[in-house]
Amino acid sequence: MGGSEQKGIWSRLENVPREILYGLLLIAFIIPMVRPIGFPIPISDESKRWYNWIENLPDGSVIMIDFGYSGGGEPELGPMAVAVYHHMFRRGGLKAIAMSTSTEGPLLWEKAMAEVNPGQYGAQYGVDYIHIGFITGTETAMAAVGKDLRATTSTDYKGVSLDQFPIMEGITDASSFDTLIVYTTGGDQSEGWVRQWYTPYQVPYLCSTLAMMVPTMLPYRNAGQIVALLAGATSGQMESLVGKPARGIKSADVITTTHILVLAYVVLGNIAYYASKASRKG
Amino acid sequence: MSLMVRRQIPILIVFVTALIIMADYFLQLPPIDAVTKKSWTSSLVTDIQNWGIVLAAFALGFGAVNLSYLHTRHISRRTKGQWPFSIWLLLIIIIFAVTGIRYGATSSTYSWLYNSSYFALSATVYSSLGFYMTSGIYRALRARNLESMLLLIVGAIAIMRNAPAIAVAAPIVINMEAWISAIPTTSAQRGIMIGAALGAIALGIRTMIGRETGFLGRLTEAEKGG
Predict the structure, then answer these.
(1) With contact defined as beta carbons under 8 Å apart, do B89 and B71 qualify?
(2) Fewest CB within a 10 Å sphere: which of A62, A222, B132, B177?
(3) How confident is the model at residue A1, as a pLDDT?
(4) How much is the pLDDT for B34?
(5) Boundaries of every domain in chain A
(6) Which chain A positions have a beta carbon within 8 Å of B125's beta carbon?
(7) Identity of the residue in B46, B126, B130 whose CB atom sits nearest the CB atom of A72
(8) Strand order in A179-184's β-sheet?
(9) Which superfamily, per CATH, for A45-245?
């Protein structure tokens, strides 16, 4: 009787209903969102490398930024893009030219700029930063912009001629750029920029992707084709470095609590599995 | 249509175009322009790439037309379990298209529409994956045998490394994860990438010489060349 009860408990624990797993996860998610805990955030070497790269660019450097992510990836990549823009504007002396290989890119760029508020740094549209619009064709677009930007697009994302913007003076092709920054939810984009900009033009490449895409990009990073590779989920580190705490730091608390819960699930699941197996043998 | 028009001419176009693009990517064929220092193939490839962009843009529009056609058919045939969703889809397409054309795709009206509908839904759907993954981890990450034990150990290290507070409390997981990323993961990923690249090269050569004819649409076995 006692044995069968025990067997039943382990068996039930082995197959906990998903509603309970989801419910606990939701609690672990909501608590730090409502009341941020302020867990410590380790700053990785990769984040420092990215930060130092921007910091050490010579004045007047031109940066190409691809807003290549979709709405689904915004909660992960948006905070990273915002933190990096804060860094660029605070540092000053840099020209940030953005484009999008994702249809939603221009809208998400506007969203990011609303968060950044470039005016607080005295940065002006068309002088210090610009968005030249969504260019369709993914890798073909990267290749075309790299080869001859003006032949590919002649207006910014609102349809205003690029000739009217001082920032575009002397910008012709990939050789006009000192660094490339890519935020993307697509493998075509993250790998395509290596093929179309790093390999032929040797433009230093900073890449931020979804966390699950990082293993795919590691060979490029370890071969030196990417200067720094960061998952969007580490945006809290960039916010700490830049000194602009926002969504990334808040989500770092959530990542910690939910990951601790997932670890507890793994331990509990294995204990239940072995206990159930032992009781079956007994 | 003759075989020449349906098969030989398209293959010739693909062959010549691919050859020019590859030559421009890998070589600098003379004559070189004295001012721009670019090969004669450069402007040609710029044109080809811009045609590609125009065609891709056309494909987006064509996709919308095709989608509308398909779902109009569902509605007219009252396809069971589908037609109400088709009405909803067409309605959304019309709302977004009309707003985009009337106010502009970067207008505040269009942004509001996007942010309060598609963006919110898209982020929600993507975020909900976390719940499925958690349930999957609970059931799948069990040390049933040596292979699954290895998966469990690596998975646990990755989870601990990615939780900022755990990484601070136990810095050893940072080094462990760094080793896993730099050695086994990169090695395996490189193998996959090199294999895929060799496959892509083989496919490219087969397409250029007309052995791969999928891009030509439906051809008879005789037209495919056996």
Answers:
(1) yes
(2) B132
(3) 45
(4) 83
(5) 45-245, 250-282
(6) 72
(7) B126
(8) A129-134, A95-100, A62-68, A179-184, A205-209, A228-231
(9) MTH777-like (3.40.50.10160)
